[in-house]
Structure prediction request, 108 residues.
Amino acid sequence: MSEENKTFARWYEKDPIVAKCFEIMEQLDDRKKRQTATFLMNEIISKPPYSDMIPDEIFHLATSEEQKRRWYDYDEVSRIFAELLRHLPDETKKEISIKAITFIEDLK
Prediction:
């Protein structure tokens, strides 16, 4: 396969529900992005692998990448939410994404 034909898929694009969650969140204003991320973070950290970690470990994992390439990197709360979600098992990512979409729909 030539270099031109290769496509890059972000981690959240691998599941259509998770991808939809990120697509919807990207379109929100900053206040609603933060509301959504904050609402779901407690739920996320109650699930493996986070349920066995101490808060400092979770924070370090979620903020260890310094580069700001993606839309969610520019807001600390959205960034932490995205990074926490990224490290969850696939089924849990989907479950949290469905809750995020429902929460966002209720905001409208």
About this structure: The chain is about 60% helix and 0% strand. Residues 71 and 107 are 20 Å apart (CA to CA).
